[in-house]
């Protein structure tokens, strides 16, 4: 598609589902391939911060549904995200990229605590910052954490990497005539009930005019394409 400007600083949200290759736990081959893509982006000069989900381990709402206490389940979910962070850190460092993991739940032996100004310094030095444990709060999601982190570190855009190539007017798996939006406004997303991120995450973006790009992570090189301003996926903005 048409080229927009290159993004200087981005927040990339990676769902846990992708890390598991569809199953429980981490699929090292998948993480390796994602890390290689991210390394290319960093070498090209853009600053990359990442929020990693944890759906490949535990989702609080699902454990609650099966009888567990919700807040405790959510903490299990958050701890799962940290394992994904460490896997991604490992493969990024193997690519020769400096990284720091910062967690919203303090665990000094494993990662730095979340310190926004320090995160910005890392980015300025060309390090990838990987944010773990979501927002550190039960009842929140890693989508919401990614919107909040993007705003706090001054990212220009929230990149939602998914297993589909954008936002559609209907489910493309069941409706072959479903059309992908190249661009869509926040208003339209709400009005038409389109699925971009959960409501809390979405309202943070809308209230602060943070653009979101939804794109397909499974096509190799797409992260670099998005960061370079190529118009793939769906851009959600004002
Ligand atoms: N979680 C939470 N607070 C947060 C972020 C995550 O309680 O700030 C928990 C929640 O239980 C969630 C789980 O961690 O289900 C995994 O995160 P998420 O579902 O957002 O991961 P993804 O769907 O992106 O893989």
UniProtKB/TrEMBL annotation:
EC number(s)?
Answer: 2.7.4.22
Superkingdom of this protein's organism: Bacteria
Pathway info: Pyrimidine metabolism; CTP biosynthesis via de novo pathway; UDP from UMP (UMPK route): step 1/1
Domain (Aspartate/glutamate/uridylate kinase): give its ranges.
9-216
Gene Ontology CC: one annotated term: cytoplasm
Residues the entry annotates as binding UMP = 54, 74, 135-142
Q: How is its activity regulated?
A: Inhibited by UTP.
Task: Enumerate the Pfam families for this protein.
Answer: AA_kinase
GO biological process, any: 'de novo' CTP biosynthetic process
InterPro entries, sorted: AceGlu_kinase-like_sf, Asp/Glu/Uridylate_kinase, Uridylate_kinase, Uridylate_kinase_bac
* MF GO annotations: ATP binding; UMP kinase activity
At which positions is ATP bound? 13-16, 55, 59, 168, 171
Q: Which reaction does it catalyse?
A: UMP + ATP = UDP + ADP
Q: Which family does it belong to?
A: Belongs to the UMP kinase family.
Q: How does it assemble?
A: Homohexamer.
NCBIfam families, alphabetically? pyrH_bact (TIGR02075)
What this protein is called in its record is Uridylate kinase
What taxonomic classification does the UniProt entry list for its organism?
A: Bacteria, Bacillati, Actinomycetota, Actinomycetes, Motilibacterales
